[in-house]
Design a protein that fits this description.
33% of the residues lie in helices and 19% in strands. By secondary structure, the protein is an alpha/beta fold. The protein has one domain (4-154): Rossmann fold (3-Layer(aba) Sandwich). It is globular and about 45 Å long.
Length: 159
């Protein structure tokens, strides 16, 4: 049987690895990260864990949950004031990899839930639905949070 401390260590290790991947590419300046996914996923929890991993790596991190605001308003009210900081802004919310938001992010996490179950029909998978490509295909990191204490990295390549 696995104790709770070991389980927490597994989750922290996962997010620390993703944070190291991010920081290997984006070392300084204002950096913007989107955490989004299928409706049943816990994007807020994933964003909190990722933000904590960045803090543990010595980064200044701000956390925001995006509501139903439009991309232009979000850009003006949240992104623009943050551009002068040497910090990471981690944002969770639905639709953050849709066409209107996609250009805002340096890095993105797409959270799946129950990948062994049926495909979630609420997320498009065709070019007709997403002219810029499916969010699953453009996310920097794709993972399954069915067991949030043991997130599992997924690979959306065609190999």
């Amino acid at each position: 049987m696995t104790d709770s401390k070991e389980v927490l260590t597994q989750a922290r290790g996962f997010y620390a690895g993703v944070a190291a991947e991010f920081l290997g590419i984006y070392k300084q300046g204002p950096r913007f990260v989107a955490v989004t996914g299928v409706p049943r996923s816990n994007t807020a929890g994933a964003a909190e864990m990722f933000a904590e991993a960045l803090r543990e790596a010595g980064q200044d991190v701000q956390r925001v949950s995006a509501g139903d605001t439009g991309a232009d308003r979000f850009r003006m009210e949240t992104i623009a004031p943050f551009r002068s900081r040497d910090s990471v802004l981690v944002v969770d919310g639905p639709g953050l990899l849709d066409a209107d938001f996609r250009g805002l992010w340096n890095f993105s996490l797409w959270v799946e839930h129950d990948t062994e179950g049926s495909v979630d029909p609420s997320v498009g998978t065709t070019e007709a639905t997403y002219s810029l490509g499916d969010p699953r295909e453009v996310a920097s990191v794709l993972f399954d949070d069915t067991d949030p204490e043991r997130p599992r990295r997924l690979w959306a390549d065609s190999c």
